[in-house]
Amino acid sequence: MTDGEETPDADESAGDESGAGDGTAANATGGTAIRRDRFSGGPARGFMSSLAADRRIFAADLQVDRAHVVMLAEQGIIDDENAAAILDALADIEAAGHGELPEAEDVHEAVETAVIQRVGPEGGRMHTARSRNDEVATCIRYRLREDLLAVAEATVALREALVEVASEHAETVMPGYTHLQPAQPTTVAHYLCSYEGGVARDTERLLDAYDRVNRSPLGAAAFAGTPFDVDRERTAELLGFAGVAENSMDASATRDFLVEVTAALANLATTLSGLAEDVIVMASKGHVELADEYSSTSSIMPQKKNPDTLELVRGRSGDATAGLNGLLTNLKGQPRAYNRDLQRAGRHAWDAIDSVTESVEVAAGAVTTAEWPVETLRDAAGEGFSTATGVADLLAMAGMPFRTAHEVVAEAAETLGPEENAPDYETLDAVCADIVGEPLSQFVDREAVEDALYPVQSVAMRDSRGGPAPEAVTEALDTAQQRLDDDGAALAERQDALAAAAAELDSEVESYV
Q1: Number of CB atoms found within 10 A of residue 305's CB
Q2: Of 43-52, 63-72, 263-272, 418-427, where does mean pLDDT reach its minimum?
Q3: Which is the catalytic residue, given 298, 441, 507, 511?
Q4: Among residues 13, 49, 179, 386, which one is catalytic?
Q5: Catalytic residue list contains 131
Q6: Cross-strand pairs, 306
Q7: 43 contact partners, CB below 8 Å, separation of at least 6
């Protein structure tokens, strides 16, 4: 039950309205551990089953079962002998694999049935003091943590690629655009750093979401808690959760953590789509050349080199945004506490994770292996009088009101022929005299004006914090590297915590078997 209560799907298994009993009445030979012969047949059984989709949380379910059984034994709710038999059966089920599970509504029921088949009715004690509702909620969070760290790690790798390439091109001038029209010259490093900053925020969102996912619902039962003396903190510890989801109804029913994760993924996908679109457009102008490994050709036009991988990155952004919309639609209007609708909730997050993680990895590879033609970019950087703002700024810095300087440069731009990228000094001087009544030399030296007309010098002027001047970009790259180091450490800390918890759980299990 991927997430549900009575049945489910890799997103939410079925669910468990049956509550939290000891399960000893389960019939291992007729029906399943939960339904037995009642409600065991009929055409709706397959429709309600999530067993195939639950493959994703199969390993998570086994770990949740182990932690729960260890806790039950430690609390004296079941004896050590039964705990050992159940844990041994779980190891056998794990070795056999998901494909060998008996037919059931969901993976949770299938595993419990398989345990009872191996151990006998006493195997049903594994479900004491829990419901499939808190079980599936825990399984989803358990697996989601792994996926979240994987995609966050991919974003860090992409940022490392962007920083690496940017460091090589701090002085490579390129055209900058607004409205897809030449605007101001910038550098390849400045451009790539703009996306590093965006992806850095995506990393932050993913890690922030992780910390809310990392709360254990186990022990909440169906939604109203349990009369058994369970230790929720202990199962949280064994499963590597930072703590428990407190309110039992909220713990079992909420899926807001899925919304948060999917929203973060949708934002990341949008960031990637913008990067992909930029590189696709630049490739069409010859401003960047993708490696053959990230390109394709036409089936009929042999001269073509198409940026197919990045077009798919752009296209896949719809997977995450559609997933977010689908998830919100699924959850909208559901009453507390558990409803079978939840069986369909998790798939939206899983699909978004899979699609976006691949997109991040492809984007990183495409950027790292691309060639940035320095001369071509430098020649294109001055197109469309892109240095106009720099000239206006120069005049304003010399004392001319900026709006007057803007008018001078704008009128000079109107004199340009179709093949001209910038007016010469004489034209600017004549326009200045006409508008202001004084020559340019009254404000600024000719050499300074002529320097400002060239892209390299224009970029060098823009040395404000976060600007494209090489010195400013170098500082930005240092800051980006520090952020990368911090995020890498944060990732490692979370990964180490999960590994330590897994090792502790293995040790506890071994003490019984």
Answers
A1: 13
A2: 43-52
A3: 298
A4: 179
A5: no
A6: 296
A7: none
